[in-house]
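Run folding on both entries below.
>entry_1
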Amino acid sequence: MNISKIAFKEIRSSLRNTRTFLLMLAFPIILMLILGTALSSAFTSGVKVGDMRLLVNSTMTNSQLSTSWHGFAQVLEQEGVEIVQMNEGIDGQEEVRTDRYTAYVELSDSGIKFYGSSKNTIESNIIQGILTIFADRYSLTTAAIQADPEIAQSIAISARPSGEFINETTLNRDKQPGSLDYYAIAMTTMIALYSVTSASYLFRGERTRNTAIRLMAAPIYKSDIFIGKIIGCTFINLLCVLVVLLFSKFVFGADWGTHYGLIFLVLLTEVLLAVSLGLGLSFLFTGEGSRAVVMIFTQVASFIGGAYFPIGDTEGFMSFLTNLSPLRWANTALTQIIYADNLAAAWPAIGLNSGFAAIFLIITVIFMRKREAL
């Protein structure tokens, strides 16, 4: 009975502190919107190819080579490459340098000289690849004619490519998060970690307000106070996390998959870890030292855990460092659950969160037993 009263008291106190409560909700939502919108291009897997204009200076006298090129050029024009024959008095390299053309090519009986644009590297590389194919196939035909003319007839120099110039086939067909999807996960786990701030003030606040003595004088077990405060703090912080999750899903349209039970367990254990950590730090460090440690920890853990920008695969010391952040465990687990349907990925994160939460709770209990007051 006493435990429930203390828990409800903590919940009411948190709800009355509207400034802090709204900050816990507004901060991740606004940050989610800003980062998700500003960095949307970093999460797109597509590449837009611009117009391709090829300036050609042909001095070929070989009729076979000239015929092959004209047939190949017709195919390129049908595929969207604009081919322009260079007039006298024009500097082809300068035309490319000033971005009037994507590339410039000099065709002669001795070979092909290609000049690409450094401003339009994708388009320039596509044209270069196409011309390389033409040169290779022409060389093959020439060699075949010398060896056996009948075989050479089966080699079509101007054979039309099928479909697009680049056909992309992925080896991993799993869904990938967009920018808002990613930051919906990152901000939700980050605000779960921020539970450490309110938890560090649970008992320190009682001492600051001089209410700790009254609590100890009341006919309440210290264990009831301890458990009630943990339940109340965990509930109110988990409520904030769920509100951010629901807002991102129904307002921003973020994809949270279908495995809501495991997602809830990952977030619940992360909140429990943060609350336990905050309690432990409040007893390990006294006064303003506790607040400073909490602030430093949350910012560093958020930074290396991928809250502000995606962190890919890391190696060596960086891999060790990033894996120290609870956000890294949670973000990895949630991404695997949502986008790869890998339900087993939840259990390492749940296990780590629960294990470290138990360790910090034990540390807190040990320090509480050594204190006469809270």
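>entry_2
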Amino acid sequence: MEFRTIVNIEPSLWKIEPCERMLFVGSCFADNMGKRFQEARFRAVVNPYGVMYNPASILHTVERLFEENKMPFEPNKKGTAVFTLGTNHVYILKETGKIVDNCQKRPQRLFEERELSIDQCAHYLEQAIELIRSRFPLVRFILTVSPIRYRKYGYHGSQLSKATLLLAIEKAINSTNVSYFPSYEIINDELRDYRFYKEDMLHPSDQAVDYIYQRMAETFFSPSTFSFLKAWKPIREALSHQPFNPESEEYRSFLAKAKEQEKALLQQYKED
């Protein structure tokens, strides 16, 4: 007997390889997921200019990375960009008429809040994807909607915002190298219990984020990636071990051995 509904996710036709170069941009959920990929030794850059909640701000991050020549990918090599959308609400600085990514605690009277339409959200996403592809054609994309609810919109308003983002993603997916991952559905349909939320009852708990990471791994990781992670697990545990006496010769020898194992493993799997 089943006591929950499992979100069915078809395995991706393309796969993420060990130590792959990755870019995570989006809401604080992107921070949470990106951290787990970094811990798994993917060469992941996570929200380099801070959290970006809406599609326009995600595009701004991509544009700035290009302007500053800091894009983490390399030409003619595979990589993966993950865009995590939080809301379709944006703030316009009245003085310039432009969308700002961070109000920087300036007075609310200086800004006008607006809601992006489905077409506008899709357009910003398509621009971000095409800009990356223009120089890095082998990069693949994962689009997902943050499961974090926005109480300040009201719960109905939060649902309308998420629905706009979901429909925009459907319009933006126009190739086999752009995939949707159902983070939002996993939390709302599969983990529909407040024990999977933090104390504010809005943000997913660490356990819930770990589970979403696991489902993403099952969907996108290659057999080589799983082999790497199996070999990396004991090394990672050794490196993070908290000894009783960190100055002892025994611990120094233990740590040096773990670092040598890490170096050898990375040399085996990294292309460059």
